[in-house]
From TrEMBL:
One Gene Ontology cellular component: cell outer membrane
Name used for this protein in its record: TPR repeat
UniProt keyword terms in alphabetical order: Coiled coil, Repeat, TPR repeat
Phylogenetic placement of the source organism: Bacteria, Bacillati, Cyanobacteriota, Cyanophyceae, Synechococcales
TPR repeats: 89-122, 157-190, 198-231, 273-306, 307-340, 469-502, 503-536, 537-570, 571-604, 605-638, 639-672, 673-706, 707-740, 741-774, 775-808, 809-842, 843-876, 912-945, 946-979, 980-1013
Length: 1057
């Protein structure tokens, strides 16, 4: 006998898993070319947030591979990181998280253990290791780790909650109740929620119900309802208890209570199929068969794939005499679950009532094949045999049912004995049989039924002969099959005390120890088996597997080599050796071993699946798909192979094909959370964000501790602009895994998008605390600081991000933008240049460097950069507009500027600044009518554009349309009452209209706004002269001359001496 390890690519696990399959969000750059009054304006590209990579070479590479879903590659990089720094707790923890996510629970445990050895004073590694042990079925080990975590941090409510669930699972309901009570004691207000709708009171109620504390369970469900009156699950579960009470006490009062609770659950959640099902069950107990059928119909409308609903509806139809309808429902239940023995039994009964006795016998026989301890199926088959005249067959079936405890069958036998005498009397001798004291006679268990039956038979044998080693050994095997590892170990220990030279028992004990994670103990037992029987190839094979689990890869290969030497046809040994080679990165060597395994056993589906994994790791996705196809040809119900094939198709960009495979995996295994998760990723890749959200939600429904699913659902919600939903999901991911740095980072992005910049900064800061090497968090925090005006703080964060990741082009870009705002234009150019070196296709970096060069007077350099930006992105309207500004303002090339503005307008017909600036260029060419048309278009797009009104007024003044000009200046002043130029130019228009008093009033206002406005003084002097107030005019001209106006100085010489 040998254990077999099957590789897997399973994305995402439960608690405490920091696995992220979405890139850090980035802000899209926007070029703004806002115009200034009386002239052209410089354009500025707004800052961007960038994705990023880790500073450390291997961690950075690993993160990049993680983003590309190359999880095995990420692990390889972490392996290298650990080789360099074997005391890096974070690296062990990250690798453990990846292994857990890939389904390698034992590997995760080893890494968490190493992290604990390095630093035993943190509760979370114990907590996470406990979860991994739980995944392996090592509930006691999980509880031990939860105990350690609580010894370090006694108020860790999550640990109490999960320890309660673990205790619940092993039947320690009192312990579970105590732990749920502790959760409530620590947090009496919030009450820790494992599911969105289920509080700690809810789970404590379930544990109390299981322990038989009915009143306590009802009290807890009632408390859960008091806290959350919309908790339909609590109403539903309280109804189940009330229904049980009705059955026990035969009191319709309790049935009425149950129905009232189910009614409430349905009012709250009309899609709660369980509540309809349970209400139908209660009505069935009340013999309200029509009412029951109505409820079962509702339940099936909600979820048509639940076999139990069809089963119960079939019972109700049968009770109403609709046997054919009942048969149809039982048949549907069997289609959904071909192993549903009860459905076969009930269909057999309905067929018997329809006088189809052969059909009845066939169905009851199928029920017995599925469950050989099904007493009623034996009794019912006996009934149909009797109807066909097969009294002997009927009596045999009733005898078996009687042995299984069916008193009704025993009564039938007694009745037949009275009728038929000795024949039935002889058949009614129900005996167990005694074991000979001669051990060599062996045990005959052929008629003992299922595994539990075998255990009972063997126990009786041991009672008769307490020194029978084989009986202990065989009972240990049976217990092992039932996952009763402790019981199996005890039996194997007894067997070896009696017979210490039994190689097979050492082998089996080694298997049990391997299952519970005692790899050293397993290796010891396999070694003892080999010592007794050096030719036991299976013992070498399984010792190799134990060494593999202990990371002794070379030792594992040596054992597999020996197993192959003993038995060159041992396919499992080649298969397992391939797994070790794949783990060591020898993908080709692994493939060679899988090939050999398949040469020996061409029907070994696991080997095809594993070879597919090795090809996947080698980036041979087509080859991997071919192997998964072969695996599925052999085993069409191999859900893991469908999942893995989907991942390979995803890598090739065939997302629709991948979704089809994930669907098939889910069809086979409806609770396959990882397949739902992967389907969500594929939908996201196809742009079906809503569909992705729905699938992530299903993954979470199956595994409410799936942090990665909450995280990715949050990212999807953020894509749709649902920032509050994104924040809620990232918060849930953080609640599950408080060390999920990227969840903090992406929650910060959602808060930023919601303009909660302080909240975003707090989240980025937390991400940095968890992972001080997270360049993205520094970069994003810098971006948020820049929006709060803390430009120096932003630059400090960008600088830190660059120290961690010197190849992060977007962060150089953002730092350049921040420096530009502080007036450090040369520093900005340096940063933009660095961004361009890293990413020569970054058109925005060229555009903003062009703006900075223009600011420093490097006109040709600015034009060259804008031209390069246009070459990279010919649809970049901002680059055309900004190049036009330089041509217009610096070179006087108005025609060239107009051509650029026109191109910008062709690309973006709503680009108001381009119309405005083109109007300015046309004004310079004295094409005032065309200029007015452009200013008018700019105003149409942006009715609050004061400079456009102002410059349109100037153009109208040039055409001597003074009243219209005055109207435009007035509109500019209405929009911007501090625009001194508009008062000045309106004064000029009034002067030209001979309205000298109005002119003086406007100049007064211009001077009030800007007391150093020389032209306003000069122009006011001119108006005063026209009114004959020469003294006042001379005072204004003298003031203008003092302020540097040469024309005013000449007027003083001419008129004021």
């Amino acid at each position: 006998m040998s254990r077999r390890r099957t590789g897997a690519i399973a994305i995402g696990v439960g608690a405490a898993t920091a696995v992220v399959l979405s890139l850090v969000g980035a802000k899209t750059p926007v070029v703004i070319g806002s115009a200034a009054a009386l002239g052209v304006a410089g354009g500025v590209v707004a800052g961007r947030k960038g994705g990023g990579k880790n500073a450390d070479e291997y961690l950075e590479s690993g993160k990049s591979k993680l983003e590309k879903k190359d999880f095995y590659g990420a692990i390889e990089d972490l392996n290298k990181e650990i080789e360099i720094n074997s005391q890096d707790v974070a690296a062990y923890s990250k690798r453990a998280n990846l292994k857990e996510k890939l389904g390698d629970h034992k590997g995760a445990i080893d890494d968490f253990t190493k992290a604990i050895e390095i630093d035993p004073n943190h509760a979370h590694p114990y907590y996470n290791r406990g979860f991994s042990k739980w995944q392996l079925g090592d509930i006691q080990g999980a509880i031990a780790d939860y105990n350690h975590a609580l010894a370090i941090y006694p108020l860790f409510k999550d640990v109490y909650f999960f320890r309660g669930m673990a205790k619940d699972q092993i039947g320690n309901f009192d312990g579970a109740i105590a732990d749920y009570s502790k959760v409530i004691e620590i947090d009496p207000d919030q009450l820790y929620k494992y599911r969105d709708e289920c509080s700690a009171y809810f789970h404590r109620g379930k544990a109390k119900h299981s322990s038989g504390n009915i009143s306590g369970a009802i009290a807890d469900y009632s408390k859960a309802i008091e806290i959350d009156p919309k908790n339909d699950s609590a109403y539903n579960n309280r109804g189940i208890i009330e229904d049980d009470l009705g059955q026990r006490k035969l009191d319709d009062f309790y049935y009425q209570l149950a129905i009232a609770d189910y009614d409430k659950a349905i009012d709250i959640n009309p899609s709660n199929a369980d509540a309809y099902l349970n209400r139908g069950h209660t009505k069935l107990n009340q013999r309200d068969f029509d009412g029951a059928i109505a409820d079962f119909n509702h339940a099936l409308n909600i979820d048509p794939q639940v076999d139990n609903i069809y089963l119960k509806r079939g019972v109700a139809k049968d009770e109403l005499g609709n046997h054919q309808g009942a048969i149809a429902d039982y048949t549907k239940a069997i289609e959904i679950d071909p192993q549903d023995a009860l459905a076969y039994n009930n269909r057999g009964v309905a067929k018997s009532k329809s006088n189809d006795f052969q059909g009845s016998i066939s169905d009851c026989t199928k029920a017995i094949e599925i469950d050989s301890k099904y007493a009623f199926a034996y009794r019912n088959r006996g009934h149909s045999k009797k109807e066909l005249g097969d009294l002997i067959g009927a009596s045999e079936d009733w005898k078996k049912a009687a042995e299984l405890g069916d008193q009704g069958a025993a009564e039938l036998l007694k009745e037949e004995r009275l009728k038929t005498g000795s024949l039935i009397d002889q058949m009614f001798q129900v005996t167990i049989g005694k074991q000979s004291s001669n051990e060599s006679d062996g045990l005959d268990l052929s008629d003992t039924g299922d595994t539990n039956g075998k255990i009972k038979e063997l126990t009786k044998v041991i009672e008769l002969n307490p020194n029978y080693a084989d009986a202990y050994s065989l009972r240990g095997v049976a217990k092992f099959q039932l996952d009763d590892y402790q019981g199996a170990l005890e039996d194997f220990d007894y067997a070896l005390e009696i017979n210490p030279n039994d190689a097979e028992t050492y082998f089996m004990r080694g298997n049990v120890k391997g299952e519970i994670g005692d790899t050293e103990g397993a290796i010891s037992d396999y070694s003892k088996a080999i010592e007794i029987d050096p030719k036991d190839a299976d013992a070498f094979t399984n010792r190799g597997l134990a060494k593999y689990d202990s990371k002794d890869y070379q030792g594992a290969i040596a054992d597999y080599n020996k197993a192959i030497e003993i038995d060159p046809q041992l396919a499992d040994a080649y298969n397992n050796r391939g797994l070790v080679k794949d783990e060591l990165g020898d993908h080709q060597g692994a493939i060679a071993d899988y090939n050999k395994s398949l040469d020996i056993n061409p029907q070994l589906a696991d080997a095809y699946n594993n070879r597919g994994l090795a090809k996947y790791d080698s980036k041979d996705y087509q080859g991997a798909i071919a192997d998964y196809n072969k695996s599925l040809d052999i085993n069409p119900h191999f859900a893991l192979a469908y999942n893995n094939r989907g991942l390979a198709k995803d890598e090739l960009g065939n997302h629709q094909g991948a979704i089809a495979d994930y669907n098939k995996a889910i069809e086979i295994k409806p609770q396959y959370a990882n397949a739902y998760f992967n389907r969500g990723n594929a939908k996201s890749d196809l742009g079906d964000t809503q569909g992705a959200i729905a699938v992530y939600s299903k993954s979470i429904e199956i595994n409410p501790q799936y942090a990665a699913a909450y995280y990715n659902r949050g990212n999807a919600k953020r894509k749709l602009g649902d920032n509050q939903g994104a924040i809620a999901d990232c918060s849930k991911a953080i609640e599950i895994n408080p060390h999920f740095a990227l969840a903090y980072n992406n929650r910060g992005l959602a808060k930023y998008d919601s303009k909660d910049y302080q909240g975003a900064i707090a989240d980025y800061t937390k991400a940095i605390e968890i992972d001080p090497k997270d360049a993205d968090a520094y970069s994003n925090r810098g971006y948020a600081k820049s929006h709060l005006g803390d430009t120096q703080g932003a630059i400090a964060d960008y600088t830190k991000a660059i120290e961690i990741d010197p190849k992060d082009a977007p962060t150089y870009y953002n730092r350049g933008y921040a420096k530009s705002h502080l007036g450090d234009t040369q520093g900005a150019i340096t940063d933009y240049t660095k961004a361009i070196e890293i990413d020569p296709k970054d058109s925005d970096a060229y555009s903003n460097r062009g703006y900075a060069k223009s600011h420093l007077g490097d006109t040709q350099g600015a034009i060259a950069d804008y031209t390069k930006a246009i070459e990279i992105d010919p649809k970049d309207a901002d680059a055309y507009s900004n190049r036009g500004l330089v041509k217009d303002e610096e070179l006087g090339d108005h025609q060239g500027a107009i051509a650029d503005y026109t191109k910008a307008i062709e690309i973006n017909p709503q680009y108001s600044n381009a119309y405005y600036n083109r109007g300015n260029a046309k004004s310079e060419l004295k094409d005032y009518q065309e200029a007015i048309a452009d200013y008018t278009k700019a105003i149409e797009i942006d009715p609050k554009d004061a400079p456009a009104y102002y410059n349109r007024g100037n153009a109208k003044s040039e055409l001597k349309d003074y009243q219209e000009a005055i109207a435009d200046y007035s509109k500019a002043i209405e929009i911007n009452p501090q625009l001194a130029l508009a008062y000045n130019n309106r004064g000029l228009a009034k002067y030209d209209s001979k309205d000298y008093q109005g002119t003086i009033a406007d100049y007064n206002k211009a001077i009030e706004i800007d007391p150093q406005y020389a032209n306003a003084y000069k122009n006011r002097g001119n108006a005063k002269k026209e009114l004959g107030v020469l003294k006042g005019a001379c005072e204004d001209w003298k003031k203008a001359a003092e302020l540097g106006n040469e024309d005013a100085a000449l007027l003083v010489e001419e008129h004021c001496q």
